[in-house]
Amino acid sequence: MENHKNVTEFVFTGLWENRQIELLFFLLFLLCYLAVLTGSSVILLTISCSHLIEQPMYYFLCHLSLMDLCYTSTVIPKLIRDLAATRKIISYNECMTQLFTAHLLAGVEIFILVSMALDRYVAIVKPLHYMVIMSRICDMLIVMAWVLGFWHSTALLLMVLSLPFCGPNHINHYLCDIKPLLKLVCKDVHVVSILTIANSGMVLVAIFTVLLASYILILYSLRRRSSAGLLKALSTCSSHIMVVVLFFGPCIYTYVLPAGSKNKDKEISVFYTVIAPILNPIVYTLRNNEMKSAMHKVWSRLSHSELK
User: Fold this and answer.
1) What is the pTM of this model?
2) Can you tell me the distance from the alpha carbon of 82 to that of 103, in angstroms, rounded to the nearest whole number?
3) What does the alpha-carbon distance between residue 9 and residue 169 come to, in Å, rounded to a whole number?
4) Is residue 89 helix, strand or coil?
5) Which of 204, 209, 207, 208 has its CA nearest to residue 257?
6) How many beta carbons lie within 10 A of that of residue 50, not counting itself?
7) Contact yes or no for 156/167 (Cβ under 8 A)
8) Pairwise CA distance, residues 172 & 14, whole Å
9) Strand order in the sheet with 89-91
10) Cα-trace Rg, the chain
11) Residue 2: pLDDT above 60?
């Protein structure tokens, strides 16, 4: 740990430098965080306490909601505290912990989205063999998501730990992330920046391309379906595509461009740290009659048990 001995803490510049705006967004992000906690918890409880947990699509949705809960809890509480504080400080060790945890959970969430795309592909292209195929690989896909997420975040953390931080300590962001940290390193980071783009940016582009290709194949296979079956499949897939675009678009913008470029990283990152986790429960429940029916049954059962 000799490399960072001159820097023991970092100072965030935050999203805005206007105090009145920060206090306004303190309240807004607090409400956003409560919405994520409520929405994701409702989905978790509804699926876990109903027959839906036996269906692969809802099994993956349950894990996605858990990742939304965990991921936002690594970012938003600190952001909310900093919006109310005059000086936004984080220690070196806490910064590294946030970097590792955020990338681990985001990595797992990305591979869960891939698993959900695979689930929809099998359900629509191989409907007769759907349950047989997916029941064999559901657990394996979740384990693989954690392994790949851990590999990605560990590689990123080890790369940052090897870098010397011996000068300025003001991070132009509201969280510890690889690109704003690279701007504080007191050596040439050209090679590290390329490795970062390869580890995060190119991987995101590749996964996003695979996801889009899978949904194009799904839509192509639907061309001979009845209008009722087509509408049902399109409704399900459109929800998934909406979530994928909302999550991957800002991520690709953030991680594909080089670290020194004058882009709007911290503003754009709000889309995948705050907005996407809020919209996930809305997208997957409001347009899903099966989910709404299960929610009604579970909450009715819970309210009856409380009355007894």
Assistant:
1) 0.87
2) 21
3) 7
4) strand
5) 204
6) 19
7) no
8) 7
9) 89-91, 9-12, 170-171
10) 21
11) no
